[in-house]
Every structure is written in C-alpha cells, then in structure tokens.
Write a structure and sequence with these properties.
Elements lengths: L15 H14 L10 H6 L28 H15 L26 E2 L17 E2 L25 E8 L11 H12 L17 H10 L1 E5 L14 H4 L10 H23 L5 E5 L4 E5 L10 E5 L3 H9 L4 E2 L17 H29 L1 H6 L10 H8 L1 H4 L9 E4 L2 H11 L16 E4 L7 E4 L1 E11 L2 E14 L1 H14 L3 E8 L30 H7 L12 E5 L2 E5 L1
Antiparallel strand pairs: 1-2, 3-13, 3-14, 4-10, 4-11, 5-6, 5-10, 6-7, 7-9, 8-9, 12-13, 14-15, 15-16
Helix pairs in contact: 4-5, 5-14
Length: 576
C-alpha cells in the first residue's frame, strides 16, 4: 500500500529534523544576499498584517534577529497574503490614503491608510469570519468643550460633598501634626467666628501659625444627633453601610420618643438662629430626602427659603394639606418648555382645575369609546364577567404625569417666607421622615450646620496628606495631595480654597465628590434680574467675609455642581 493511500497522510509534511536541515542549507545559500535589512522596495511590497519571512540568524555576526518559524513555508505566506487581500477587499497598491496625505515616496514613509481589524481564520476548520470592524481615522478632529474663562473667584456650590482631593506641586506638610496650641486656637477661632486674614502668598507655610490655626478652623462642623458607631452622613442610600450596627432604639418606642423630642428642640434652635441671621444655612438629611434652609439675604433672596429634594407625590400632597405654599421651580408649565423661576400653589391649583375640566370631556369621550369597545361583549352575553376600569384607575391615569416626577431632580420643592416655619412644624410632626423598618429605623434625621446650636456636637473633617512620585518624560517628579473626607459643606470648600491659594502659591487642582441628591440645590430659585443682597446684616453669621460675599450671589450652576476646580496664577477655572 502506497504512502499516499494512508489515512492522515500529508505530502507537504516534513519531520522537524528535515526542516532544520533545510533551514541550515537555505541560510548558507542566502548568507551572501542577506547582508542587511529589507530594502525600501521590499518594505513597500510587504503585506500588512503578515509577519515578514526571516530565514534565521545572520552568519556575518551583525547582531541577533528574530528566529524564523521552522514550520512556515511559502504556501503559508501566499495564503496569508490572499487572506489579507480578501479581508480588506482591495490590493495594497490600490489603497487610497486619507485626505491630506501625500504619495511622493511610499517606500520611505508609511501612509495612514484606512485599516480594517484583522479577523482570526482557521484553515483546517474552514470557518468563516464572525465580523469585520472597520476602524477609520477621523478626518476632522473631535470637538472639545471650551473651558470656562479664568476668574478670581468661582460660583457658590450648594451641594454637599463627601470628599475633596487637592493636588499641587507644592507640599502639604503644613497640614500635618498640628500642635495642641494650634488646634485649640483653631477651635476657639471657630466658636468665636473670628476671621483670619492671610497674605496673598506665604513663603513658609509650615512655620505659619495663623495658617495652621485657620486650617483647623475650616475643618469644624456641627452635627445632631451623634452616635460614634454610626455614620450619619449621607443618609440617602446608606442602609448598606448601617447594616449590622447596634441600634438600641429600634425596638424601644420610649427611647425613640426621647430622641425625636431632643431632635425637635435642636431643629427649632437652628431655625431661630437662621431667622435671627446668626446662622447662614443648615441641612436636614433624612433617609428619603434632604432639605436646605437658607437665611434671608443668601442666594439672592430677601426672605427665608427652604429647598427640598427629592420629593414624592405623597409628601407634596401632605404639604399641601398642611397649608404650605410651595412651588416646583424645575417643572415646565408653558407650551414653549421654558423653566419658570417659581410658581405658587394657587397657580398650580388653577392649572389643575383647567386640566380636570379638560379631562372631563376626554373622560366622557373615553367612556363612550369604552362602551363601544365593550358592546361586542354584550352580544356574547359575557359583559358581567369583565371588570371595567374603576374610578381609582381613572384617577391614577390622570395623575400619571405628576407621579413621574417622584425621586427625580425635577421634583425639587421651594418654600419661601413664613411658609418655612410651617414646613418646620410639618417636619417635626411628620412620621414619614423617620424610617419604620431597616437599619435606619427610629433614627432621627441628621442636622448639619456651620455654627453651633442647641444639642449639637462639634466634629472635624479628616485630613490626610500624601506625597507620591509621578512619571514624566524626563523621569519622575514629586506630586503632593491633600484628602479631606466627611460631610463637606459649601462654606468649608470656600474656606479651604482661600487657605490653599495662599499656601500653595496660587496653584492647585481639586476634585470634588458630590452627594448626588443635593446637586439640584444649585438650581436658581429666584429671578435672574433680582438684585444681589447686602451682606452687612449677615456679618455675625459665622462665615468669612469673602465666603459670605460669594453666598449672597445668585446661583448660576443650574442642576449641575462643580466636579473639578483648578487654580493657576491665582485664577480659577472649573468643570461641572
């Protein structure tokens, strides 16, 4: 029986020993011709995506090169060339370069062709390619967003931050290891609301006692209630972090009543400070929503304001039943889809009445259509077994658009003037602001304030400086960072930037991590043509004069918040 008749026989198969022998013979015969690399003409004729044929190491001792595949032959090379041409669909000589390229010397310059991603083939299995992905070089550069113009200040950001990360080419060692006297002096400066005046630039920040005391002063905030084993901010979506923590009040109703009674006293104390303009603002953080109370003169308003977000239809109906006059500043009400600055509840009632009058006709028409649609059931005699839509279903269908606002930024509620006191009583007596089940069951809402109030506990944010080396083209350079964690309120962000501007010689970058449910607090809730308020009446509210000047201006960030802040040459640029 001949070898050709044997099963699995391949005429082109050669033993490895024979392949090595042929390789040595071929390398000796071609040693004289291969004295260097490929010529420019051969480089141009090479097929893209196919590894060039390499017979083996040179005998002339010019240097080691990549060893050729001993199992490669001329048939594999030709097959690879055909595969490459079948994938691209055009010959290498017929490729058209991208616009803007020239073809003067194709042998010495590689052209930016339109490439096609290679597809894995298997000849033995004879499989087809799954897909070909065409990757084209863009003919036009992608548009880049224009950065905001540099300014000596930046707009007020009313959202709460969970973390700040400052980076600079100057070290932050002046923030480490505060002396006991410097820490005590910083706390006294905060309690007495004494502003610290610093020069525009500090040559030796580590030896500046005023700078280190002011840094300690900027880290202080006031909190109620306080349980050291619980993280009381953020509260929205914090069930997982509180899972498994000790909560002795969960099953004790008497303890819950004591906690809520103390909380109501602290809440009332904060509101009285706000009304007397001794507190600029404060936050009420529940497990479902957050409320921002601002004093008169803050954010361009001449009356007290309260912003609540997110809300639901149930909480809005309960507020309406309590007689609280509120508005939905982000709800579009006109046909041109323009957002109005404010809308009173009476206007909403009038519009609702108009919608109800209009819906009566639609309801009658729909009822007639439904009667016609059910007429064929009467002919079959089964109309009694079919349940028609009841009044509740019709009512829910009418309120579908209102329910869509729930838990969305557009559900933000604005309360002004004397209605804020009604809102205070509503929140104190509302049982739904406290979770009835889960890890937060029976836990009163968190009160956050920049100034002291009854029942509050003083806390400080955590600061940590890190020095690292980053790789650059010329080697490595020192990169310094400062991390601030905790409930970072708006006044703390501005105070820290004032200190870092002087200590870091007018140059640093900051990444701000926002508590997302509070981003909507930057929405302008007042007409843009309103005048800026005078900050003289708020001189005793406990804020730095420059910080107070920033907070009296109108909100300009809209529904976004500052995510990145850069200071270069004492001028700010920011990204939202």
């Amino acid at each position: 029986m001949s070898s050709e008749m044997l099963p699995g026989y391949s005429p082109s198969f050669k033993k490895p020993s024979e392949i090595l022998r042929l390789s040595r013979r071929r390398s000796r015969s071609e040693a004289g011709a291969r004295t260097g690399l490929f010529s420019p003409g051969e480089a141009a004729r090479r097929v893209p995506g196919v590894r060039p044929f390499s017979p083996g190491p040179h005998r002339s001792g010019s240097g080691p090169v990549k060893r050729r595949n001993p199992f490669a032959n001329l048939e594999n090379t030709v097959a690879a060339k055909k595969r490459a041409e079948s994938v691209t669909g055009i010959c290498p000589q017929e490729r058209e370069p991208l616009p803007g390229t020239e073809q003067e010397n194709p042998a010495t310059e590689l052209k930016p062709y339109r490439l096609v991603e290679d597809v894995i083939w298997r000849e033995n299995l004879k499989t087809e390619p799954v897909a070909t992905i065409e990757i084209q070089s863009p003919e036009k550069p992608l548009p880049t967003p224009e950065p905001c113009k540099a300014s000596v200040t930046y707009p007020a950001d009313w959202s709460l931050k969970t973390r700040l990360l400052f980076t600079s080419s100057q070290p932050f060692t002046w923030t480490d290891h505060l002396k006991a006297q410097e820490e005590a002096q910083g706390l006294i400066l905060h309690c007495r609301a004494t502003p610290v005046s610093l020069p525009p630039s500090i040559a030796e920040p580590k030896s500046s006692t005023d700078l280190r005391c002011a840094f300690q002063q900027a880290l202080v905030y006031w909190l109620h209630p306080t349980f050291p084993w619980l993280q009381l901010f953020p509260r929205v979506g914090a069930d997982r972090k509180m899972m498994g923590k000790n909560s002795p009040w969960t099953q004790d109703e008497a303890l819950q009543q004591v906690l809520m009674s103390e909380w109501a006293l602290s809440f009332t104390s904060l509101y009285n400070l706000l009304k007397a303009k001794l507190c600029p603002y404060f936050y009420v953080c529940t497990y479902q929503f957050t409320v921002l109370f601002r004093a008169a003169g803050i954010a361009g308003s001449d009356v007290l304001t309260a912003v609540m977000s997110p809300t639901t239809r149930g909480i809005r109906e309960a507020m309406k039943n309590e007689g609280i006059d509120f508005s939905l500043p982000l709800v579009t009400n006109d046909p041109n889809k323009k957002t109005k600055a404010s809308e009173s509840t009476s206007e909403l009632d009038e519009k609702t009445q108009e919608v109800e009058n209009t819906s009566e006709g639609e309801e009658a028409r729909m009822d007639s259509d439904e009667d016609e649609s059910f007429s064929w059931l009467e002919e079959m005699g089964v109309e009694d077994k079919i349940k028609k839509p009841d009044a509740i279903s019709i009512k829910l269908r009418k309120e579908k658009n209102e329910v869509k606002l729930d838990h969305r930024p557009e559900s933000v509620v604005l309360v002004k003037g004397a209605n804020t006191f009604t809102l205070l009583n509503f929140l104190i007596n509302c049982k739904s602001i406290v979770a009835a089940a889960g890890p937060q069951a029976g836990l009163p809402p968190t009160l956050l304030s920049p100034v002291a109030f009854r029942g509050a506990t003083m806390h400080t944010m955590k600061a940590r400086s890190v020095n690292v080396k980053t790789q650059v083209r010329s080697g490595y350079k020192d990169q310094f960072s400062l991390e601030i964690t905790g409930p970072v309120m708006p006044h703390a962000v501005h105070s820290l930037t004032l200190l870092l501007k002087a200590a870091q010689r007018g140059s640093f970058s900051a990444s701000l991590y926002t508590h997302e449910p509070t981003t909507v607090f930057n929405t302008p809730v007042h007409p843009q043509n309103s005048k800026e308020m005078n900050s003289a009446e708020l001189a005793n509210c406990g804020l730095h004069p420059l910080t107070l000047e920033q907070f009296t201006q109108l909100s300009t960030l809209g529904k976004s918040s500052i995510r990145h802040l850069d200071l270069s040459d004492y001028k700010y640029t920011w990204k939202c």
